């Protein structure tokens, strides 16, 4: 039986709709059940590799005014790299 999380244990994270739609395509057939599940996985992975003294994360461009033309699509090589990474982690 799945335990219910406390009501305040989650927050809403807003991302641009074009990015959300692209991520929906990326996760098709990957074993992830939702964009949220994929985003949590990626963010946990990123946070686990950020050890205080390591690589500094730099903010990207502002998200509020992005249009689909401002966002570069993932290349086939990038999509394949994501699939390989997910496969090596047992998600595919």
Q: Which residues sit in consecutive blocks of at least 5 with pLDDT less than 50?
A: none
Kindly report the average pLDDT value: 76
- Please report the distance between the alpha carbons of the first and last residues: 25 Å
Compute the number of strand runs: 0
What's the total helix number? 3
Largest sheet, in brief, is: none
Share in β-strands: under 5%
Query: What sequence of helices (H) and strands (E) makes up the elements?
Result: HHH
* Principal-axes shape call: globular
| Percentage of residues in helical conformation | 40-55%
Question: What structural category do the secondary elements indicate?
Answer: mainly alpha
What Rg, in angstroms, do the CA atoms define?
A: 15 Å
Features:
92 residues, mainly alpha, 3 helices, globular
How do the helices and strands line up, and which of them pair or pack?
Elements (H helix, E strand, L loop, with lengths): L16 H11 L7 H14 L27 H13 L4
């Amino acid at each position: 039986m799945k335990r219910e999380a406390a009501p305040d244990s989650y927050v809403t994270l807003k991302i641009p709709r074009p990015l959300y739609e692209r991520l929906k395509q990326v996760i098709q057939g990957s074993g992830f059940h939702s964009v949220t599940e994929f985003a949590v996985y990626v963010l946990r992975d990123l946070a686990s590799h950020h050890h205080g003294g390591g690589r500094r994360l730099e903010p990207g461009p502002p998200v509020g005014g992005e249009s689909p033309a401002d966002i570069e699509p993932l290349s086939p090589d990038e999509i394949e790299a994501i699939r390989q990474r997910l496969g090596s982690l047992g998600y595919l």
